[in-house]
Design goal:
This protein is an alpha/beta fold. The chain has two domains: 216 residues, 3-Layer(aba) Sandwich (Rossmann fold), CATH 3.40.50.620; 106 residues, 2-Layer Sandwich (GMP Synthetase, Chain A, domain 3). It has eleven helices and twelve strands. Bound molecules: xanthosine-5'-monophosphate. Xanthosine-5'-monophosphate binds next to loops.
Amino acid sequence: MKRYAGMDVNDSLLREEQARARVACMTPDEFVEYSIGAIARQVGSERAVCGLSGGVDSSVAAVLTHRAIGDALTCIFVDHGLLRKGEAQEVQRLFLGHFHMNLVVVDARDRFLARLAGVADPEAKRKIIGEEFIRVFEEEASRLGEVRYLVQGTIYPDVLESRSDGRGGTGVKSHHNVGGLPENLRFELVEPLRYLFKEEVRRAGTALGLPGSVVGRQPFPGPGLAVRIVGEVTRERLEVLREADAIVREEIERLPAAGGAWQYFAVLPAIRSVGVAVEEGSRARSYSHLIAVRAAASEDAMTADWVRLPHDVLDAISRRVALEVPGVNRVVYDITSKPPATIEWE
Ligand code: XMP
């Protein structure tokens, strides 16, 4: 134990504080340059692998590492089929087409669906998705041959959280174990964003030339749409939710700063309701899906307020979803804050 600013601290804590202080005063360009040098020194002539999710952190970590070691980096993108509309294509277009990175795309959609068949409990779904993700990633990584390093998008809040209680959660949902990789994989870690806060990661991403759609991306849970489908995940229900969600996002994004929403999305509850289907002038009774719209304002996801979206935006969403998404006849708006609700429905 050492004394630092009048307190007893251990060496690793002190090193972490110093590392944070070092990057805290850098401009985004300075950070990018510094980080590329640090990664190049760490990895040397070895090879590295990175799990790309399409999210801000893994994208910035991957591009930084690619700038440092080029083709010695291979990225693995596991398409579990639980992503939002267009996301898998966007990842390929960007990292393969634009950045020319070594990218392995694993189409694991059927595999995840098969594992999720008949499972309705949210925590059971999270567990299955988390386990399956690690299995697929490990299988693909082992095909690459000798690889020493794993690039991870760990950011400073993760470091701080793991310090306080070792898990960083309230235990309400098993968030942080899902859609990520465990620490006991056979790799040594490269964590270029370890001392950055989210906003600093976004600024570094912009400095690296990542588009606004990536650096400004709203938080998206690791288990993806599976926790926005209440009950069993099926191909049909995924399709309904994905289409509805694309409309919800498109309409809310017409507002400046998305109307102040931090997260906004569609949810598919496990109920159907009665409606009237009008087709070629005739009217028939329908018994179809319901879509719930969620828009939450928050700073840290611990608490959240529902967003007072303008009525004309809600109206546009409702009309478009009911008209354009087959099998939906009703749209509702979730007007609950957190607490007592959570942001996600599961
Ligand atoms: P809740 O629903 O607890 O969500 O208010 C708080 C924040 O966490 C995200 N979330 C998850 N993120 N895996 C994740 O990576 C998960 O299983 C998960 N569940 C919720 C949620 O989107 C919000 O930002």
